[in-house]
Design a protein that fits this description.
The chain is of the alpha+beta class. It contains 9 helices and 11 strands. A hairpin with a 2-residue loop joins strand 4 and strand 5. 34% of the residues are buried. The structure holds adenosine-5'-diphosphate and magnesium ion.
């Protein structure tokens, strides 16, 4: 008989897709929630490929099942997330935001053939985007068709809570959505994730203001540094962002959904 979830003890981390438990010999088990179980192979393969190509990803050791739920066994990464450090040591926000851009730029130098194809994923999501008119959907799909494909490593959930600062340097976790694609799209995706950040209700008003300012500052520093490194064409940057917003419509509820929809309509000139 295999072990039960109770045998694993309290989770050492938890997110939207999974809970993370300590595993033997310095490893961790990312145990997927039932509605994300189908992504386990994808995350295992992407994390492995990222590491093999030279990205700072946790080492992976295979797939295990606990109480019928699949999980990825990986190196246990010890440290605090970049986001936690920005909140605890706000004076370091500028340095971390620059580092975030530099790390993403480094990923974008690596080829990722073998991972999911970005344009195919985007098309799939836009076709299912909630709230888009037929005309807008067709226009966005047309825009996507005209944008240049790429074969670079795009993490696609690249934000400061998926970076753990360890004694040996920063490590990128959570490769579940990684793709082979155009870096400018991945950059746009990060700016869209930054813009979303809705805060839980219990956060006090004064703290909200501080966090909100911190987020805006981090976004600006990050985006300026990335643009300085990659020099993306402004038009292409805007078009990818429109496509990324439209694709995210099926991922989120209001109020973010309404903001994204307004943004897409404005960009398509139908707002
Ligand atoms: N390899 C790991 N070692 C240690 N902690 C981890 C590891 N992977 C994830 N965690 C912890 O679990 C949390 C959720 O994991 P993550 O991979 O980001 O899942 P989700 O897809 O649900 O966001 C992380 O924020 C981190 O605190
Ligand atoms: Mg995560």
């Amino acid at each position: 008989m295999g072990r039960s979830i109770a045998d694993l003890g309290a989770p050492i981390g938890s997110g939207r897709t999974a809970e993370i438990y300590a595993w033997e010999s310095g490893r961790a088990l990312k145990l997927f929630r039932p509605d994300h179980a189908h992504d386990v192979e994808e995350e295992h393969a992407a994390t492995r490929l990222a590491g093999e190509r030279g990205a700072p990803a946790p080492e992976v050791f295979g797939i295990e099942e606990v109480e019928g739920r699949p999980g990825v066994v990986m190196e246990r990464v010890e440290g605090e997330s970049m986001l936690a450090l920005m909140v605890r040591k706000p004076w370091r926000t500028r340095g971390y935001s620059r580092l975030l851009a530099e790390m993403q730029w480094d990923l974008h130098q690596l080829r990722a053939t073998g991972l999911r194809d970005q344009k195919r994923e985007l098309r799939h999501d836009i076709e299912r985007g909630v709230g888009l008119s037929d005309a807008d959907r067709a226009a966005v799909l047309d825009l996507l068709d005209r944008l240049p494909a790429g074969d670079r490593l795009c993490h696609w959930d690249f934000h400061p809570d998926n970076i753990i600062i360890t004694k040996r340097g920063p490590v990128i976790i959570d490769w579940i959505q990684a793709q082979a694609g155009n870096p400018v799209a991945d950059f746009g995706r990060t700016t869209v994730l930054f813009a979303a950040g809705t805060m839980p209700d219990h956060v006090r008003a004064w703290k909200r203001v501080l966090l909100e300012r911190g987020r805006r500052y981090c976004t600006e520093v990050y985006a300026a540094r990335y643009r300085q490194l990659a020099r993306p064409d402004p038009r292409e940057r805007r078009d990818w962002r429109t496509v990324v917003c439209a694709a995210r419509l099926r991922e989120v509820g209001s109020p973010e959904h309404d903001r994204l929809l307004a943004l897409v309509r404005e960009q398509m000139g139908t707002g």
